[in-house]
Amino acid sequence: WIGHSLGFRKSILGLDQGFTERKLVGKGDHRIADLAVRRLKRAAREGRRFFGWVFFGSPHGPYQAHYRRAPARTAMQRYRQELRYMDEQAGRVLAALAKSGLAERTIVIYTGDHGEEFREHGGRRHKSTVYAESTHVPLLVRVPGLAGGPVHAVTSTLYLFPWLLLRGTDEMR
Asked: What is the model's pLDDT at position 4?
């Protein structure tokens, strides 16, 4: 488990169970991506099965400006920069997965823990409403050997692991 330490220092509600390694760093997605890339290289060398969780912190406030030529005056503009920055770091991890040769035998799940509110319905940041801006998060799943496509239905990350178990081969279990 490699990720940001924000909110995970005192209580992580059991999310740390089952990990042989845990590296939590301050808000710095480039550092999180560096650690994840190194761990993927090691996993490729070792040739063993693994379960990894990479948790980026950039889309969480306070929002930083990362790009000089992009608008950064408002919180929303800086939030958009944070999303772009985090996406670039996630891209580095995915590129390392492909380069290592692990991509064709690794399930990749990309999701968010929550959206952010910018007073669309009166709330700020997150956890103050259940409108789409807080609850609608990306969920992308890539399973080697399974055809993909969009799903236009209400779903939940709660269904993710049962869904995978129903579709996986014996080798995946």
From this structure: 78
